[in-house]
Amino acid sequence: MTNGSTFPPRRRFGGTLVVVLAALLAACAAGWLIWRSASGHGGDKPPKALPAATPASPDGRPGTDGAHGKDGAHGKDGTPGDGGPDRTDGGNAGTGGDRDGKGDQAGPGGRTGTRLQGKVVLLDPGHNPHNRDHPREIARQVDVGNAHKECDTTGTSTNDGYAEASFTLDVARRARTLLQAEGAKVVFTQDGDRPYGPCVDERARAGNEAKADAAVSVHADGAGDGNRGFHVILPARVTAGAADTSAIVGPSRELGERLAGRFVAATGSAPANYLGGGTGLVVRSDLGGLNLSGIPKVFLECGNMRDPKDAAQLTDPQWREKAARGIAEGITGFLTR
User: Fold this and answer.
1) Residue 150 catalytic?
2) pLDDT tens digits for 74-104?
3) Helices then strands (H, E): number in the chain?
4) Domain membership of residue 42 as a residue range
5) Which of 27, 102, 131, 193 is most buried by its number of CB atoms within 10 A?
6) DSSP characters for 113-163?
7) Is residue 300 one of the residues assigned to a domain?
């Protein structure tokens, strides 16, 4: 055209439409991927928010190894006495662990829950900080079914003087807070509010009278330097006098296995290297607190106060919080199995 006028160029709608459709498809694909990730659909992998299952533990049988002690108590010099756990005359048991991995996080981050609503837990802080002021009273003999033992003892201590009785109260109080956060009613045998004791037979009776669903007696050992690690003491089958553990041997073993497994996970501690054959489980027939119990019950020796490396952990408040969490999670796993 030569008249000075031009026609507008022809619009190409086809190319523009392709670009728009491609952008729309990309946005849809991105949205689908985001939804898939958030909803936990990831093929064979579980959602990241779920805790990993705890490895299974084989059932063990009592053995014959271990050191010797009386009613599991420790004197001021770390030597065994009568009234709380110290050594084993029983055997080793199967390895500990939470066998099904269900619900073993007790009150994390202070969150309240209801998993233990209606459950009663007996916590028995070993010994008493005031026992040393009442030597005559705690030396009184009491009937534990198959023998007579001292009412209680002072317990052991670290080489720097940190008393086992102070340790057990601190850890038990921390565990109580965690268990209460899950709805449990927690009963103590003593809370530093008694002049001495209670005696070992009374400690067992407290759990029976409370109709507790589980009981744990918290202790720390007084073995020699180089003996490290924790162990859980399980009741042997005792039928003598007022003692009859026939009904609690099985459930107590399960409680002990779960407690051992969760204690390892929470603290990173290894089972004792000086008894129990590396299982962390020991069976005893001489502890009044177990012999006279009518409910599932175990003793936990959290470590060895006479070994410098273990003592460094036992005197560390942060480690004691981990120990308390291991106890609370073990009990929770047992009661929600």
Assistant:
1) no
2) 433 333 333 333 333 333 333 334 433 334 4
3) 8, 12
4) 18-50
5) 131
6) --TTTT-EEEEEE-S-TTGGG-HHHHT-EEE-SSSEEES-----B-TT--B
7) yes
Residues 307 and 236 in one domain: yes
Strands 120-125, 141-143: pairing is unpaired
CA distances from 187 to 206, 239, 285 (A): 8, 27, 25
Work out the number of other CB atoms within 10 angstroms of the CB of residue 159.
Answer: 12
- Mind listing the pLDDT tens digit for each residue in 152-201? 999 999 999 999 999 999 999 999 999 999 999 999 999 999 999 999 99
DSSP state of 230: B
CATH number reported for the structural domain that contains residue 192 in this entry: 3.40.630.40
Assess whether 130 and 247 both reside in one domain.
yes
Peptide bond into 198 cis (omega under 30): yes
CB burial of 31-56 (b: ≥16 within 10 Å; e: otherwise) equals eeeeeeeeeeeeeeeeeeeeeeebee
Question: Do 197 and 123 belong together in one domain?
Answer: yes
Please tell me whether residues 43 and 127 are part of one structural domain: no
Classify burial at 25, counting beta carbons within 10 Å of its beta carbon; exposed 0-12, middle 13-18, buried 19 or more: exposed
Residue owning tokens 């030396």: 139
- Indicate the number of domains in the chain: 2
